[in-house]
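Annotated sample (chain length 426).
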Amino acid sequence: MLGFVDDETGYDYLVLTDYCDQPIHTTIDWLFAEKEAGRLVDPCEAEDHDGRRRLVLGLDRAACAARDPKAAWRFRWASAVLKDGPVTTSDDSYTAWIATRTDLICNDKGVSEAIPAASSLRRWARKLFAAQGRRGSLVSCAGRLKGQSPLPGLEDFLVTEATLYYWAAEDASFVDSGAYYIDARDRIADGNDEELKKRLASKPVRLETIRARARQLESGPATAAKTGDCRARRVFEPAGRSVPAERFLERVEMDGLELRQIVHFSDNWHVAAGKMKMINNIDTATSFWFFPSIFCGPYREDVSAIALMNVMLPPAHIEAAHIEEFPWLQEAYGTCDLIAPDNEMAITSPGSLSALTELGPDVELPDANHPDSKPLVEALNRFIKGFLESLPGTVRGPRHPKDPTRNALKEAEMTRAQLRAQIYCA
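Output written by the structure step:
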């Protein structure tokens, strides 16, 4: 026999009535009988609740938590207000009362939760009082449940069929899947099944709806089946794959970077030299950044050789007295076991690979479809760009808000030597 239990204590819910001296165990049959006799009424039936609120007003504790995890938090504070809350309804009185109720900060599991604002708590208490203490009055009705479609059943089915057609057909585009949906919908509209016609919406869905549904089903196996393994690996394999390196100079990552700053040649020659470039090397095990090679003009073999020499030997601008003052610098340079350069042939030409191998380090060329195979040096490049972003003469990217009156070439005032000094300060 179905009955009712107290949501707080878990015991059977007992009711005292005028026509019985003993407490009555509440059951479904008793509920229907009392309702039919007119002795049991719903005090909230006459209230003007919208459709969404009616669906959640009678939910119990578990159902409220499943629908809105914060409902229990609101109910704990609002019920305490109705029990022994502040006398006045001003924000100051509610704020003072909240400061005294430190026992309500932790939930049933002992986890600390946020303290509500006075205006929010006053609104929750008013809702809970109007709903006669029902938990569902504090459940958020915004949006839909996870996985719930706003489309009618038949329209939702047709959109799903069009989405599956997009992923199943090798050369199908979103426009093709939209045409598949329209064709299936027209066949139903022109058919003889009147019941199916009634289940169609007044107008077809937009192409963007089918596109969004297809993106929800996007996965590695689906992308590999449609566009090939290469595309699937580029999209779904994790970025910044870790490469094992346990000691210094075991593996060095090398990459080029084009700076965004336009600079002058020198203090005596105020002619724009264009944007400078640099070649960075970073140790994989320790993230030690070797002195880069900073230059103007295109990438070429001689500047790559300077960058590699900065890995093997201290740079030329470091004086011998400085090395004597910091002896550890002598151990910060040497021949690495393996170098991972960029695939750009202007940085590492095919002819230089054999020379590097003869010099000592092995060469590990990254995968053509994985620009993130050198995560440390790529992160270093992003840091340098952000560090120099505010300098005068910076050329803004396409995503930056543009000022049509701004001219980066006219703003340029730094020289090549000054930009190098800024990079060394990074």
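Annotation: The radius of gyration is 35 Å.
Annotation: The beta strands are 14-15, 24-25, 252-264, 272-283, 293-295, 338-340, 362-363.
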